[in-house]
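Ticket reopened. Same input as before:
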Amino acid sequence: MRRAGGQGRVEIAIKRKSFRSAAGEDRDVLVDMAFGLEPGGITALAGPSGVGKTTLLKIIAGLDRDYEGRVASTARRIGFVFQEPRLLPWRSVEENIRIAAPAATGAELDALLVALGLDQHRRHYPRELSLGLARRVAVARAFAVRPDLLLLDEPFVSLDEALATQLRRELMALVTKDRITSLLVTHDIMEAVQIAERVIVLDGRPARIAADFAIDMPPPQRTPLFVNSMAERVRSIRLRASS
Amino acid sequence: MLSRAASVAALLVSWQIAAWLVGERLLPSPEAVSIVLVQEARAGALTLNLAATLARVAAAFALALTAGAAIGYAMGRSSTFDRFADPWLILLLNLPALATIVLAYIWFGLTEAAAIGAVAVNKLPNTIAVLREGARALDPALDEMGQAFAFGSWTRLRHIVVPQLAPYLAAATRTGLSLTWKIVLVVELVGRPNGVGFAIGTAFQLFDVARILAYALSFVVVMLVIETWVVQPFERRASSWRSGPG
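Engineering reply: fixed in the latest deploy. New output:
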């Protein structure tokens, strides 16, 4: 199914990605990892901590080129939300966004800051912000570049649940509005089945794709009951994969 | 502020007492020195010599800081280049200042370029060593962020690298300025027709201790002014994000 708007189409075909340990041995992290991302929609990349999700995200973003295989992407601009906000401590909130997105107009920036509840914090420096606010700035920065491909690495980790839920909703609204191809890395299965249209579960060592399925119901219509049963289903898949 | 004034007053008093004890010929009193200072200033020689020295300090310092920052950054970022250039750095660090100066004059003649070049070469290794530490301490997470958002090299330099190197640049400036002006004086003593070093050299031949002190102290004052009005404001500006909106 093709949707209008989004440009980012990604084909991932990684034969092998390994890290060299301190002892000098090569340890495979990812093996025979192949999937594609269609333009538009959120895909969640779930799996236990340390399974290689962040590594995969960095390869897709072109930050890590030391692997066997190929990643083909039509995305011209990538928005990246790192696990830590990674703001420039010596620049204000507004400067942080402007530096990353010099082409963004004032009106676009204003709309984004309002949408994420940051308009009161334009002139603040990152150290004056709570973690929740800093995360919002990181999200605003990623959207400000008008990305074709949005990569999110556990953007809601270590926030309290109410705040995480609110940020998830804001993120979904922004992603849905522009039909941006989004890949969300999370270890939280509930989060994955709450907001994603497709869930890819990684498991094992080296990591393989344990499950890859679409959730047809639009995220706003998903009831807590539905989310719970979906999460149960995913957990059972993982149990089977690891046994 | 009060304790600083008391400190200066104590210095003047002990200087005066010492002058009484050893005699005006070896150590002229503060008053005698200030009289010479006013004479030199009226004749215009003081301004001329101070300006000549200051210009040399500025030129040599700018040269050493620019080249040193570039080389230090490269060494901090690339371990291959670091291994290659490290023996050169050790050689430079241990090369006697006087040898560099004399050789520069022999090879390139008694010229301004040779003088400034020799001073810059003396200051260079220190800047390289300090900036190399700074480049090694650069945050790889911010580097990755800049790469992910496809920052251009100018944006990366201006917004990611330089703010992180600013404290190291300030440290290199602070230690470098005093080092540079002391070497500039030697360069002037050996082979320049003006400057504080030249004036002190002339005074030495005439055994004019008052003039030696007058020049040395007035240049200390000039450097204190630069430290207070240039270096410290730069440091404050560079670290304003730590304490609040700048």
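The interface with chain A takes residues 141-142, 144-145, 147-151, 155, 159-160, 163, 241-242, 244-245 of chain B (CB under 8 Å). The mean pLDDT of chain B is 89. Please confirm and we'll close it.
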